[in-house]
Each structure stands twice: as structure tokens, then as C-alpha cells.
Amino acid sequence: MGTWDIAVFAACCVVGSAVQSISSFGFAVVLVALLPVFGVAIRDAVVLVTLLVVPNIAVAVWQVRREASLQRVAWVLLGVPIGTPLGIWLLAFGPVWVLRGLLGVVLVGAAAMPFLRGEGPARPARRLWAFVAGVASGALGAALSTGGPPIVLYFRHRQLSKEAIKASVMLAFVGTVAWRLVAYVAQAPLTGEKLLTASLAWKGMAFWPAVIAGTLLGEWVFARLSLGGFRWAVAAMLVVCGIYQIGKAAGVW
Questions:
Q1: How many domains would you assign to the chain?
Q2: What region, left, alpha or beta, does residue 39 occupy, with left being phi > 0 and alpha being psi -120 to 50 degrees?
Q3: Residue 70 domain boundaries
Q4: In this model, does residue 83 exceed pLDDT 80?
Q5: Would you say the C-alpha torsion 117, 123, 127, 131 has a positive or negative sign?
Q6: Radius of gyration (Cα) for the chain, nearest Å?
């Protein structure tokens, strides 16, 4: 990257981390879409985003630590290791367009449904759906670095405050990102190639200051959002993410 590319990419990190801090996800939507513009291969982009998001999650969890509950996310985290191998296989061998298309349709539909029929009553917590969300997050996270939407969808329909929703999602991200990084290293003997290299790790950490700056900006906005505003922000990000994934699957961009 030249000086101009570094500045633009740093700005993208600021925007992506601010978006995630406001809506609880979306970092990968922004960065995975833009990294190929800088000549980064899709596989490296997915791994790089996993590295870049680490400080964002750390700051976000600290900000909402009083609402964090391991019990609330336990069954989600149990499902993540089940879905991760499928995601690793898709990342290494493809085809990811099927996954992108399905994800896009589900996200757009899930985001639009509450506004078409009203929010309706909150759904009770069910271990099965938490586990399914974890499996889907593990697969999507490892393949596309977009493991957030299934978890967000699960907690969005719970009767929780915006702080509790964000704390639950971010706490789940701690487990999913940590597991994903371990899987990227452990897969090398199985696939015959390294997904996570030392060079890629250093490149990711070099942009952590920009990620932290965007995270703090997003946290400032999040603190001033009402619960209704937060739900609209989440719905908007779900739609954007869904349209992007459908477009990628169709080869539009």
C-alpha cells in the first residue's frame, strides 16, 4: 500500500468500527467489501478482518461489562465450534456464493419482517435457537467473517435493553473470534496452506489505532441512542449486509 492507500484504509477501519459499535455488528460488512479494492485476496481479507476486529470487541465489552452474562451466551458459544469447520472448508475450497446468497435473503427478510407486521412480543429464550445461532455464526464467521448476523438476530427478539443486547452479542464475539483465530492456525496441516500468517498478523495490528478511534466514536453515538433508535440501526445494518451478500453472490460487484 502507498501512503494514500494506507490513509484511506485507516479511514475505512474507523467507519467500520464505528458502525459495529453503534449496531453491534457490521465491521466485516464494511471491511470485507473494501479490502479487495486494495488488492487483498478474499481469503486474506476474511482473516485480516478477524484480526482487525479484536480491539473493537475488547472496548465494546468493557463499555457494557455490567450487562454481560456468560449464562445468556453459553449455548450460542457451544454451537460455534460445530459450524466453524464448515466455514473453514468453504473459505479454503468454496463455493461461497451459495452461502452469500442464502445469508443475504435471510438477513433482508429478517430485518424487514418486524416493520411489516410490527415488533410483536419478545420471544422466550430457547437453548435450541441459541445453539443454531452459534452454529450459523461459526460457519459464516469462518467463511466470510460475517458471523455477527445470526447472533444479532437471536438476541434482537429478546426482551432486553440495548446495553444487554450489545453485551450479549459482543461477549459471544469474544468466543467466536478467539475460536476462529485458533481454527485458522490449526487448519494448516489439514488444508496444506496457512490462512493466518505472521505477515498478515502484523498488517492487521498496524491498523488497530484506527479501529480503536472508530470504536470510541461509535460508543459515543451508542450511548445517546434510544432503544428504538438502536433497533432501527440494527435493522438498517441487516438490510445493508443482506443486499451486499446477495449482490456478491450474483456477481453484481
A1: 1
A2: left
A3: 3-250
A4: yes
A5: positive
A6: 17
